[in-house]
Amino acid sequence: xxxxxxxxxxxxxxxxxxxxxxxxxxxxxxxxxxxxxxxxxxxxxxxxxxxxxxxxxxxxxxxxxxxxxxxxxxxxxxxxxxxxxxxxxxxxxxxxxxxxxxxxxxxxxxxxxxxxxxxxxxxxxxxxxxxxxxxxxxxxxxxxxxxxxxxxxxxxxxxxxxxxxxxxxxxxxxxxxxxxxxxxxxxxxxxxxxxxxxxxxxxxxxxxxxxxxxxxxxxxxxxxxxxxxxxxxxxxxxxxxxxxxxxxxxxxxxxxxxxxxxxxxxxxxxxxxxxxxxxxxxxxxxxxxxxxxxxxxxxxxxxxxxxxxxxxxxxxxxxxxxxxxxxxxxxxxxxxxxxxxxxxxxxxxxxxxxxxxxxxxxxxxxxxxxxxxxxxxxxxxxxxxxxxxxxxxxxxxxxxxxxxxxxxxxxxxxxxxxxxx
Length: 421
Description:
There is one protein chain. The chain has helices spanning 113-123, 127-141, 207-213, 225-229, 243-253, 260-267, 354-368, 370-397, 402-406, 408-420; strands spanning 12-17, 25-35, 40-45, 48-49, 55-57, 62-64, 68-69, 72-77, 85-88, 93-99, 157-163, 168-174, 177-183, 186-190, 202-203, 280-291, 299-302, 314-316. It is an alpha+beta fold. The longest helix has 28 residues, at 370-397.
């Protein structure tokens, strides 16, 4: 039997909606906190049509494909099929979190929560449709399987924060049971705990009867999902120290004036624990600007490297003719990949992409030479600021050079690599 890793704190996802933001925009952000030696890649997949009866191979299982999938950009652990976070061509963004509760976690291989992130993005053109996609797949295929590239078992239930240009949804699961909360204004965050209380806008049809049958709820008061399905004291969620509370406080501090830069600063905050360090650390970060005006492009920023405080948030815009993002894509090992061969995870190939290697070398130099490190940090901060200003000009003017946007992320990656030389 595989050894088991106990619960770990990892990942935080945020959303801010008007009037909490400036410029009539929704701002989405996430830190992916994973094992410190795991490579996170940023990859693009174009929209596609599929034949009847076609299947799609996810991380562990094969499922039915749909007639059409949308273009997506994903930030993901490079060993798996799904994603920790990402966006699609319709402005839908999804991030997920590991959560635990009273319901036992399934060890059987099924869909990972990270598979559900990608499937939601590929199949839904609104945030609410993504909720429907995920819960239908959850009902049909279940969730389960090792979430780490290791013989050590690391399994969990999942929560999701899903946003589009108009609204956001929080979807939280416990086995096959789930609750969803619609967010139409203000701020919301999720971390490694259930957080939906009595504001339940959609739910599994048996969520109440199952809770009563287990003696978790007496049916006399409104169902508090987090309190019923986990051990969270929901009365103290926003006052007790912890990353969920710290993230909530950071959002509330900036409420009314939140921008993409604000969200990047929150993701870089180490005092709160949002920017994680240690054996589990922040291995990739994402921030998205979702303008409520449909004529303006959504802009998605990804690091593709560990520690956002020493990384560049690089912009991406969905336009036609985008090709694969070569410098942030990890090597592919096909059927010989140790993830695909059973027993799984008997070895670990080198999955580092070019940007990761350069960033890794730069991080060593930053540690060994304070002067050179400060110079390099100023250089990449200047690069990021320039890109933020360019993106703001596009949003203010409404003018997008589509030909330049095709290579926007790739060119910025090249500039970051040059900065590390």
